[in-house]
């Protein structure tokens, strides 16, 4: 449902949909996945037209290319989103299957039963694909989703909201199970963040400032994906050609993604060789070098010295930082100080170095001798994801279908009672 209703109307509709929603595993959710894919295909031209309006307005406002890249849709996105819907449909039986069963005192059985989390509020910025993801994954396992995207994608969200509403109706699900907010007034966000009486979980996706704002402005439990300030430590034992391959894949395959590397931490013995190898291998990126290395690396117009504010920064473009470190201990200390606990990696043939990295670094994913971009639900074999959580409670890493569920314990006995002498 696309809505400009009052806050009370929005939450009343969400609560009603939560109460009327079928339980997880109902066949209507699989039907919804198919209906959404079909209707996205049917109405894609209208979605693209609306998105072109948003992109044009963003250009008129002089918004940076990194933002334009995130908010723009193309024909290829349709295939990605319909494939997401189909994969979700296929995985639903596994995600909602009966859980473990235990036998307790007196022959009772205690069985886990999948339950929806409830009403989820997603606040995100300029990625219209998130609107589809937010209306698909949570709803497919029985949740109600309230979706508030950035002002930059308002027209696109109106078009996508109409598709989502039509898909819910076709599948026989309550219309209020997915609400796309058309109202771009920030006052509405503040009002929603105060409503922990109705909203069960808050999922912010976007910049660190957005996530911090949500965490500090609401009592609603947060499933947060912190900013992608990710590092790759290249040890002196590393295979240099492999390190170059991993670094370039980690940066250039999708420079604005949350699992993209921003800073290379290179052992001081191989830092110059690594920098020159990177510059010689690819021409379509810029390198910010540790000032101590600038005079030692062959001059290139693509090189600039690192500045202090580049530590802990997401460049969100084809820029890669490189700092020299004395060894693994200094690399770990730098990551602890500047990382966002999202994805951290190490390239090393010395197993002791890799094991120390795995032990001493805290992040949602730690990658050894591989691209940072491997931290992704489908790539890891976990299925579609809504975001990557950097928190420790409830879920860490890819937020897939099972992470959008909780459970009840179904306890069954044949007249069993606890009694005064029961176990404690």
Describe this structure in words.
The protein is an alpha/beta fold. The protein is built from 13 helices and 17 strands. The model has no long low-confidence stretch (mean pLDDT 93). One of its GO terms (biological process) is L-proline biosynthetic process. Pathway: Amino-acid biosynthesis; L-proline biosynthesis; L-glutamate 5-semialdehyde from L-glutamate: step 2/2. Residues 113-285 form the Aldehyde dehydrogenase domain.
Strand content: 15-25%
Topology as a string of helices (H) and strands (E): EHHHHEEEHEHEHEHEHEHEHEEHEHEEEE
Note the overall shape.
globular
Strand line-up of the largest beta sheet: 11-10-12-9-8-13-14
Radius of gyration: 24 Å
Structural class: alpha/beta
